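Standup notes
- HV: blocked on the assembly model, inputs below
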Amino acid sequence: MLRHAVILSRRSARQLLSNMVSEKVDIRSKILVYGETYARKGALPTPTKPNAKFIGWIDENGNMITNDTVVATTKDQTLTAKWEYALPSLIDMELGSQCSLDLSDALTLKSSNENVVYVAPSQTLTAVGTGNAVLFVLENGEIIKQINVSVTNAPSQVQTLLGDVDCNSDVNVADAVLLARMLAEDKDVTVSAQGRANANVNGDDNVDSDDLTMILEILANISSAF
Ligand SMILES: [Ca+2]
Ligand SMILES: [Ca+2]
């Protein structure tokens, strides 16, 4: 029989094995013979990755390759692992809250509406506005999943200390600064639901610049609200 070497990689098996465990690259060299199955001299490896389920091996043409597949090429070939990620299809967030998904390093997120949910470079999500958005999960630039995100107002909270936006049991200029940044939609700051309740100094339906003015007045001892 003619032996055609199909070398998936020339790197040493040991190095590749460690790559398999730690990297998104799941490759191992295997010498195959045209007309025989991929299981020749041992089954194809079954890689593992946190929060992901291995689906199978895909060749360069997108064909699923199993141990029973017959080798139909004499060329070098690279098989790519196909994964299914354990990701939710729906995320409910309260306005102002943050969360992060347990992502594999290979995945990045992109928001369809950054005025609803903002994705930081760290991939942390911040609910910056009420409404719905779609999170695109990208692997190597390709969308592999869409997650619907719904942001709603936090349930109304009882004020613990009027003006204490950062909830440290004290009202000072840091609270005014935090509120000002929140109102300016500074995406680097987050205010908890309790903080938003405390920020609503005039007790109406909104947290807005009127409340900021009142906090500044409190700080300047102009107001006798306390
Ligand atoms: Ca405070
Ligand atoms: Ca208010």
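- HV (later): unblocked. The pocket of calcium ion (ligand 2) is lined by residues 200, 202, 204, 206-208, 210-211 (CB under 6 Å). Residues 3-85 form one domain.
- Next: hand off to the docking folks.
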